[in-house]
Q: What sequence folds into this?
């Protein structure tokens, strides 16, 4: 800016501070997107913010915007475009992290197939070899087992945890059988095959209450497929 003295006076701009976001940005409406934009310092001009609404930019589309898109929408200042790209990348990372650890299925207790197995579990420490807790997220299957070894003691809180990355799962199958004289309590069995090439220790079959195995196996298979999908596709979902 040329002042009266003939010198160029530069507009002083300070680094932008990130805006803390609560809730799920992917679920934002155009109004919420515009409210977020108005909080960025220094904020965009009203025309640029209005362009986001005019072009129907919702929260799930923010991650798809490029610098070229922003320029066409009227964000003319390069610094503002770079700030927007940086802040949208932060929203994307936060959404991915939240989705990655979202619990899809969780089961407590040690599944057993028969009354005899139940008695073994209760009375014999060496037979307590099944996980006490299962947890399925978008990225992993977590198996937690209490340590009942003599060194730890029966009242010990020591635990062993195994985390199975879903991208190492090759196949998921469920078996639901009924034996003669079965009262309907025979559990379903879920078998999970891991990638042999990675040298992973095989998983013991997961037993679930009768009639629930198919739905749980479908949840695991769906999570495996999502883990293998491109990141952009996951964000759209």
A:
């Amino acid at each position: 800016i040329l002042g009266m003295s003939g010198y160029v006076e530069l507009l002083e701009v300070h680094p932008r501070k990130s805006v803390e976001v609560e809730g799920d940005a992917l679920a934002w409406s155009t109004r919420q997107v515009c409210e977020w934009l108005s909080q960025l310092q220094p904020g965009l001009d009203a025309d640029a913010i209005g362009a986001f609404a005019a072009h129907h930019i919702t929260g799930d589309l923010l991650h798809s915007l490029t610098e070229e898109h922003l320029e066409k929408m009227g964000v003319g200042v390069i610094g503002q475009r770079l700030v927007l790209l940086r802040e949208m990348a932060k929203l994307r990372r936060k959404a991915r992290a939240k989705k990655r650890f979202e619990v899809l299925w969780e089961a407590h207790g040690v599944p057993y197939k028969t009354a005899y197995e139940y008695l073994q579990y209760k009375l014999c420490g060496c037979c307590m070899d099944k996980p006490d807790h299962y947890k399925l997220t978008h990225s992993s299957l977590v198996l937690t087992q209490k340590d009942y070894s003599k060194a730890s003691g029966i009242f010990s809180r020591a635990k062993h945890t195994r985390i199975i990355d879903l991208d190492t799962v090759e196949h998921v199958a469920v078996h639901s059988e009924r034996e003669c004289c079965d009262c309907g309590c025979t559990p379903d069995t879920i078998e999970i095959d891991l990638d042999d090439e990675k040298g992973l220790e095989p998983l013991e079959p997961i037993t679930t209450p009768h009639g629930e195995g198919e739905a749980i196996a479908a949840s695991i298979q769906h999570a495996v497929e999502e883990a293998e999908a491109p990141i952009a596709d996951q964000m759209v979902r």
Q: What stands out?
A: The two ends are 47 Å apart (CA to CA). Strands lie at 103-108, 133-137, 140-146, 159-165, 169-175, 188-194, 206-208. The chain has seven helices and seven strands.
